[in-house]
Amino acid sequence: MFATTVQLPGILAHLGPTLDRYGYLAVGGFIFLEDFGVPVPGETILLAAAVYAGAGVLNPVLVGIIAVVAAILGDNVGFAIGHLAERKLILKYGRFVFITPERLERAEKFFEHRGGRVIIIARFVEGLRQANGIIAGLTGMHWLRFLMYNAIGAVLWVGCWLTIGVTAGDHLTTIYHEITRYSLIAVGVAVVALIAYVLMRRARRQRLADESSVGGPTGK
């Protein structure tokens, strides 16, 4: 499709033949599939396309529009998967990973009140980007609310990487590695904080239970 002499840096190099052959179709298809969990390099194809756009091979505006639309559609497929999975089915198999009715209800309330910020942030985090639509659908988040925050996240994500890819040139690989590293650190911190929170809640419940048992039936 495109005859180019663009040299993609580092980890992006293997995507050159795909972009040369399929162009915009590869950008839209990879991002769409990645965004509901299919293991394809959606983010890296976006970066590779941004380098091509910076070299004048692809139109940066068209790359941006295609990427945003593909990201929104992909996440909405994930949302539909999560939404259509029956609650009974989730609870039936969720018990193997400690999903109880009470925990699912708390997750639904959390996502209903704070899910918007989570969706926007998750767009930039590997792993969460592919799962946030499914999680939002599972927890019963309203579709229009999800669509709004998902669109905001998609525009920010595409705009950020497209700008970096067009302007960074040979420094792109270093920048990508650094951003990815810090996003993984952020995920690690969030996991540690969540574990600490769960342990504190468990310790508090145990302490209250011990105090109640000591007080007996007439205790306050």
Layout of SSEs?
Layout lengths: L15 H7 L1 H11 L7 H13 L5 H25 L2 H8 L6 H22 L5 H11 L4 H26 L3 H44 L5
Helix pairs in contact: 2-3, 2-4, 3-8, 4-7, 4-8, 6-7, 6-8
What labels describe this entry?
220 residues, mainly alpha, 9 helices, 76% helix
Question: What integer value in Å does the Rg equal?
Answer: 22 Å
- Strand proportion, as a percent range, falls in under 5%
Mean pLDDT, all residues = 76
List the total number of helices: 9
**Low-confidence region ranges:** none
Structural class determined from secondary elements: mainly alpha
Tally of distinct domains: 1
Order of helices and strands: HHHHHHHHH
- The percent of residues in helical segments reads over 70%
Given the C-alpha coordinates, what overall shape results? elongated
Count all strands and give the number. Answer: 0
Largest sheet, in brief, is: none
Calculate the terminal CA-CA distance, rounded to whole Å: 77 Å
Characterise the protein shown here:
This protein has 220 residues and is mainly alpha-helical. It has one domain (10-213). It is built from 9 helices and no strands. It has helices spanning 16-22, 24-34, 42-54, 60-84, 87-94, 101-122, 128-138, 143-168, 172-215. It is elongated, with a radius of gyration of 22 Å. The chain starts with 15 loop residues before the first helix and ends in a 5-residue tail after the last helix.
What would you say about this model in short?
This protein is mainly alpha-helical and 220 residues long.
